[in-house]
Amino acid sequence: MPIALDPGQRAELAEHCLLQPATACDPAWSLPAVDLLDPDSCRALLDRLGPVIGSPNRYITASLLAKRLAFLTTGLALYGMSVLDRGLDLALANWRLDYRHQDGLWRSQMPLLDQRASTPQPGAREAWRASVVQTLFAEGLAPLWQSLHQSARVPLPVLWENTAVRVYSLYEKRLTAERHPARQAQIQADFHWLVAQAPAAVFGASHNPLQRFFRPRQPATARPGTRIRKTCCFYYRATDPETYCGTCPLPHARCKRQTA
Predict the structure, then answer these.
(1) Average pLDDT over residues 119-124
(2) Most buried residue among 45, 114, 185, 201 by CB atoms closer than 10 A?
(3) Radius of gyration, alpha carbons of the chain
(4) pTM of the model
(5) Which are the contacts of 121, defined by CB distance < 8 A and separation ≥ 6?
């Protein structure tokens, strides 16, 4: 049975994962996440958001929105799971899509309607973990990515790699500085399961997308240890002058051609 977060957990998730009550949303810049499953609502949002973020078309707007939503949803669900042993409900019906953007930066947070959480029973954490992950991906992001794909024609591999890089960053950067050393073994075990063992069904996909994009890091780059993406998110198309993500495959490919 779901239980309430204690004040300390709620504060930690608000600080690190931008959790907020759904009632705190600005109605002018948010909507129920399930609304995006309607093609007309989805296209209307993309058309409104495009000029705000400097995007030239729905395709790029959808990709950049997906990056932000992947950051918010996976950060909250997986931080709660791996650090606090709390399983928050990230199914689409339980959150609002906050899309505030100002002065070139996302200002959106992660508003949940029901902020109660599940907890693992003794000896059953693996089954509980699979359930938390399935709610996040199969019941949350997978249908949302399908809608963005259909409404904006952005390829599903781009949307899933946008998601994967957020998960890698969470576990390889943000959680490596986790201040509870006793949690490190659990954090690493969860990450290994996500990228190497989790079945396709928990992602609502035909394969495990986190495993598909988990490439070795590249030592010979401007930023040694960077994992270069397979796909481009098209962030550079919404910047002036053009600015590339640190993991973008385009400048990396050009550099390889010049040194060949």
Answers:
(1) 96
(2) 45
(3) 18
(4) 0.93
(5) 128
